[in-house]
Specification:
alpha+beta, five-stranded mixed beta sheet, two-stranded antiparallel sheet
């Protein structure tokens, strides 16, 4: 009898070869390392069995802020209590290896979900390494087999064949799959900022009916709406933590707060969308992958949320024109923007 072939995880094509770049953003505020039920005991027992001087069971448990699920690791000075920043490594990982980490730490920036079509991995672009890969290859959404071993990053959620499309309305997985594919195809055919605007408007107003919006029906007030103070604070906090360009963002923090708390002009949005068309459309495709499957929202609200975040990228890029990596940082800013939106909690 032939052995079963190894399982395959599908991922966005430009991120299928992702490898950790050790930026350490996931080891510090605003991200918090959490422990799932059973992980406090599992990791503690693992450390007790190794008799490792660098990190004892008592030291690990002392680093946990809440000793009941979900546990949260302390962050003295903003860094995780287990981070050895001079060595740019996690003390727990150095002692126990990748598989010894809490699932949330091990998987970041991946979100792996089991669907009726198999396992798929989405990514948080709050990770500078992931964001840089998208900037290097801003392409229409397409699947590719992930290069990492499937067993190393197991699914954290399972999606059944029944899909919650909207309040009180269920679909089958096949219908949802066709919907997602239709929106991806629409994004791939956009060649101007106006077409992108019409697509985002359709996602906001008719999320379950691709192509229902016309160019002259774009609600510019929604596409160009100002951000809330919570959203601006989330973006500012995230950008300030970047190891390579964070200081530059901190210097211009006040100026950006003022700009982001005001609506953007429709003409300025169009111009930016035209200049950065491939990046904005690619970003929208990656956000659409999250819709329902990875963020856990109903399909309709998830697609609406996706459209707001995708539209926001067009206003972010011009305001981050300084610095070594402005487009990368714009994707990171959009990821942090999602933390200030309703429904936040999953990876953006």
């Amino acid at each position: 009898m032939r052995p079963d072939p190894p399982p395959v995880v599908l991922a966005p094509r430009q991120l299928a070869g992702y490898q950790c770049g050790r930026s350490l953003v996931c080891c510090a505020a605003p991200w918090r390392a959490t422990l799932l039920p059973g992980e406090l005991q599992r990791i503690g027992e693992q450390l007790a069995a190794t008799d490792e001087a660098r990190l004892s069971r008592a030291q690990f448990e002392a680093a946990v802020h809440v000793q009941r699920p979900p546990g949260v690791l302390k962050q003295p000075g903003g860094d995780c209590a287990l981070l050895d920043r001079p060595r740019a490594q996690c003390t727990l990982q150095a002692v126990s290896g990748l598989q010894g980490l809490p699932a949330g730490c091990r998987n970041f920036p991946r979100s792996v979900v089991r669907t009726p079509d198999g396992d798929e991995a989405a990514f948080s672009l709050a990770c500078p390494t992931a964001a840089a890969l998208v900037v290097a290859q801003p392409i229409a959404f397409a699947w590719a087999p992930a290069s990492w071993p499937a067993a190393a990053y197991p699914p954290h959620r399972t999606v059944d064949d029944r899909v919650t499309a909207a309040r009180g309305a269920d679909w089958g997985w096949r219908e949802f799959r066709a919907l997602r594919q239709a929106w991806w195809q629409t994004l791939a055919t956009c060649t101007t900022g106006d077409q992108l605007a019409a697509t985002f408007a359709g996602m906001m107003l008719h999320p379950l009916d691709p192509g229902a919006i016309a160019l002259n029906d774009v609600p510019w007030d929604r596409l160009c709406a100002p951000w809330t103070q919570t959203q601006v604070r989330s973006v500012t906090e995230g950008l300030a933590r970047l190891p390579d360009t964070g200081p530059q963002h901190s210097k211009r923090q006040r100026e950006r707060w003022a700009a982001w708390l005001m609506p953007i002009d429709a003409g300025a949005w169009r111009d930016s969308a035209d200049r950065h068309l491939a990046l904005v459309a690619s970003h929208a495709g990656l956000l659409l992958q999250f819709a329902f499957v990875h963020d856990g929202l109903a399909v309709g609200p998830a697609i609406v949320r996706c459209a707001h975040l995708a539209a926001a990228l067009a206003r972010i890029v011009p305001t981050l024109s300084d610095g070594a990596q402005p487009t990368r940082d714009a994707l990171i800013a959009a990821a942090h923007l999602s933390r200030g939106m309703p429904g936040a909690g999953a990876l953006p």
